[in-house]
Amino acid sequence: xxxxxxxxxxxxxxxxxxxxxxxxxxxxxxxxxxxxxxxxxxxxxxxxxxxxxxxxxxxxxxxxxxxxxxxxxxxxxxxxxxxxxxxxxxxxxxxxxxxxxxxxxxxxxxxxxxxxxxxxxxxxxxxxxxxxxxxxxxxxxxxxxxxxxxxxxxxxxxxxxxxxxxxxxxxxxxxxxxxxxxxxxxxxxxxxxxxxxxxxxxxxxxxxxxxxxxxxxxxxxxxxxxxxxxxxxxxxxxxxxxxxxxxxxxxxxxxxxxxxxxxxxxxxxxxxxxxxxxxxxxxxxxxxxxxxxxxxxxxxxxxxxxxxxxxxxxxxxxxxxxxxxxxxxxxxxxxxxxxxxxxxxxxxxxxxxxxxxxxxxxxxxxxxxxxxxxxxxxxxxxxxxxxxxxxxxxxxxxxxxxxxxxxxxxxxxxxxxxxxxxxxxxxxxxxxxxxxxxxxxxxxxxxxxxxxxxxxxxxxxxxxxxxxxxxxxxxxxxxxxxxxxxxxxxxxxxxxxxxx
Length: 500
Prior knowledge:
Blueprint: H1 4-19, H2 60-82, H3 85-109, H4 112-135, H5 139-159, E1 162-163, E2 178-182, H6 190-193, H7 196-202, E3 206-209, H8 217-226, E4 231-236, H9 238-250, E5 254-259, H10 265-269, E6 287-297, E7 300-302, E8 305-309, H11 310-315, H12 324-337, E9 344-348, E10 351-356, E11 358-363, E12 386-391, H13 396-401, E13 411-416, E14 418-423, E15 427-432, E16 435-440, E17 443-457, E18 465-466, H14 472-479, H15 491-494
Parallel strand pairs: 2-3, 2-4, 4-5, 5-17
Antiparallel strand pairs: 1-18, 6-7, 6-17, 8-11, 8-15, 9-10, 9-14, 11-12, 12-13, 14-17, 15-16
Helix pairs in contact: 2-5, 2-14, 3-4, 8-9
């Protein structure tokens, strides 16, 4: 069993090796208050493949050329078929999105007739635009253009894809005294439905079941370490995963995730099978080990995210667990437009933002819908960067402008190594991996790179290729055979017949 001091030294060494040549920790972005920085979302890790990972093969240039051709064709098709009117029809599509955004705002921020009108607008706006296109005979050029755009995005992702870091690693040594904490009520009873307790005991693990009383999960894990456990595991939700993961990281012990919760976002981004949580137990005998980051909000660990503002206030309501939709619709009008609506401030590097209604700080950045075929997922878990998404919408006009994304003035996306959340109250509610807590303001959030050793099965459904964001300057360089700075030219580009 390893002590805290030796674990800290190993984590520091791991983080130091990975941080070499990296950014200086300055946040980047633009948003509600005109904070300094570059584009809507810039990751300091964009041009780095994960530790131990490798680029996709020599076909990258071909995929990059296909992406550029498909992107150009997606613009040319409507211009050739309908002429300059294609720009008009693009504006009609954007207007439909703006109307849907207005409808959503009325639904969430108002009550009575205004809310009813919002529901109607949300339902009809997405149907109205295709109906107008069909009536004017431009539906098929629009559909072809959209299909080409999807092809362009997919080809761009493949062109800049990298191999997952765990591929090529040797097997992890099976633990001698694995300890697994199971929540029988989590995920609607997945522990019993998938016979996880019996299968874990058959694999030689000590199993502890959470009862309905108030139990200190972290203390149970610390006691297991004191009694000689050499692997800690949780079959439950992400909130419980985070509490035990902190103990595992503190003692530099491997941690096993068994996706027996409701959503299991952490397991999803690790590539685990959420439909069959028992498959995770294979890691006890045939597993590989990954190093992933851990997030901290003050002294609380999160494996996914910490949410401030509107969502955190809703999660804290006693009725939320049993009536999520009804409770949210009851509370949101006051939280979004009421006199006592929470207003937050953010400091991250050179960026400042004030008057925020919602703020999401994640353990590594989430992908955007325009950047990935898997929006809401994390491209990697070892970038050493927090992902930050901030929202400020005060009225209907600002809601309509949200279709412009980061240029709307109401949305800020950036990455940073540390961030400070400010409030005008002594404490601030926070949703940490879905669990409601109160923390003293201001709240300092940070990331501890490579802090957690995660044991995963060698055979799991996670895809071996993880697409990066659609970095079009880089795609263009690949298509022209010009490598990015610090990236070696491919054998095909140099004309060399050797691959080594």
